[in-house]
């Protein structure tokens, strides 16, 4: 353990008391990393590989990833990854990749019929919660956690993966039995408005790509009548070792895992007359195309602008990693700008987000395409102009130094925390990353190497780097796809497809003005609180805790734990809660947290508070249950002082800002008709009223217009101060290393 951490562990109780009494504690952390011999040489180096993971191949082409990991003890996470999914179905097989996934649980060589699920449940593996699988366009993924308190379980686990790979029975009787299950899944899928709209717009969005016509559920008609032999054909063609990876992470040695992989997978052979595994793409748009898609049960309006698809770049060198950091900082900076616009007193949109990979990147293995998504408020044209105007503003004027530094400050603490906690991560947290590396042929860098690269490269990234990148991204697209989705009827006036193209083109030729920069705060608290005293102390040897009673009535219980190396967990509770308030305050109680959060604390608006806390690992939440007032927070050890200052700020200084409140309320009111149009929400609302006998204090599912009118900001602030300004009665608990 690092010397600084040892000192922090030894002294944290003292630091806690000092912080509670005066909030004057100051913690520092010093780390170092060897400097590269020269930047040009460094950037040209190949990315280092994660030395904690053993990656290899069997002679038949099967890939494996093995990582011994101590947490949790006596458990191994096993995965089988198949680089094949619905994209490889023939026309008459649509839906059978997913059908095949189901058949892996309905009869295997060593576990006929339902014996697999029966066996796994006996050893404590729950079907659905633990044991599961999914089928996508390019991938089929099987997940199997195995408890190893009985050594026999581990070998059985690899045997099951081996059976999935080459021992599925696929009997006609079981196929016909399973049809009904799958058809019910498909029926439930099509009850979803978003899925129905997805089927309409995906062919245009993906520019006629094969991906648009190979959704994993397939066609009901094929699932209902397909000959079982077609499923066997799919299994025979694509479940083969060169397209498979086995992942083993957990309480296992490398030699153990290797031996079991060789035993259960080494004898699998590729099929004769092996079919070529084709990798499909989304071609770049060659014209401008617009689409308006509606559904009577849709609960939101959405505008999406997609740039032409391009080939995804794979990181291979340190220079590539630096470029990815620049892209990430740029993306975070842009989305932060959108966040600030959405939080104004007269927001042009409810939300906007830029993605550099977009829907195309989420669907395909090798392509990506920049995408702007906007949730409009009131007027679609205004929302689109504001979002695209923000892009143009950055293209012309760039981000300010303060904007970029605010984002950059987040990176090093994030990676530093990951590095410190790397040996405390659970086995399941690694498996998806290894599966993704197999699917996309990307290197496994590992947490330690990533931390080293960020420490070296982050200081070299300048404002010019970010703003130069913005100019290459924010070109006015010659070709694009734009769409609007939403309900058939609603407050928003939907354009025709021609009008949608016109308003998008018009947004790109607008003139923008340079943003005015505001001075950032330098202190969280405008005035430090008055120092109190410890008036009593007690110890619980059974729980290894110490409880301090302070002069203001607060009790603080402190416990040392080594579960995480760099984490402080903090909570407080006192008797109170929402049940003290009657019908007259129903709306005020229901919206208390949202209203206070929308206005901010002290001199900070919500966005300014987020900016101030950039790079700080400290967060605090305040709220009411039926019977209690609660505070919950967490931080790194070095940010303990900020955690306590933030707690003090939120408990004592709710901020009144009627302009920001009105902005928040306008977004809520725009959503209400859409919530009522959703059958699921409408059912929950009606059911709740019936279950509570139409009691006026029944929980609020969908607020009415009257509920909105009953929100009284002054009363909300009064309730908040009554519950949280008075410290007497609070009992806080703190757990730290």
UniProtKB/TrEMBL annotation:
<keyword id="KW-0732">Signal</keyword>
<keyword id="KW-0862">Zinc</keyword>
<dbReference type="InterPro" id="IPR007863">
    <property type="entry name" value="Peptidase_M16_C"/>
</dbReference>
<feature type="domain" description="Peptidase M16 N-terminal">
    <location>
        <begin position="69"/>
        <end position="199"/>
    </location>
</feature>
<dbReference type="GO" id="GO:0008237">
    <property type="term" value="F:metallopeptidase activity"/>
</dbReference>
<keyword id="KW-0482">Metalloprotease</keyword>
<keyword id="KW-0645">Protease</keyword>
<dbReference type="GO" id="GO:0046872">
    <property type="term" value="F:metal ion binding"/>
</dbReference>
<dbReference type="InterPro" id="IPR011249">
    <property type="entry name" value="Metalloenz_LuxS/M16"/>
</dbReference>
<dbReference type="Pfam" id="PF05193">
    <property type="entry name" value="Peptidase_M16_C"/>
</dbReference>
<dbReference type="InterPro" id="IPR050626">
    <property type="entry name" value="Peptidase_M16"/>
</dbReference>
<protein>
    <submittedName>
        <fullName>Insulinase family protein</fullName>
    </submittedName>
</protein>
<comment type="similarity">
    <text>Belongs to the peptidase M16 family.</text>
</comment>
<feature type="signal peptide">
    <location>
        <begin position="1"/>
        <end position="34"/>
    </location>
</feature>
<keyword id="KW-0378">Hydrolase</keyword>
<dbReference type="GO" id="GO:0006508">
    <property type="term" value="P:proteolysis"/>
</dbReference>
<feature type="domain" description="Peptidase M16 C-terminal">
    <location>
        <begin position="228"/>
        <end position="410"/>
    </location>
</feature>
<dbReference type="InterPro" id="IPR011765">
    <property type="entry name" value="Pept_M16_N"/>
</dbReference>
<dbReference type="Pfam" id="PF00675">
    <property type="entry name" value="Peptidase_M16"/>
</dbReference>
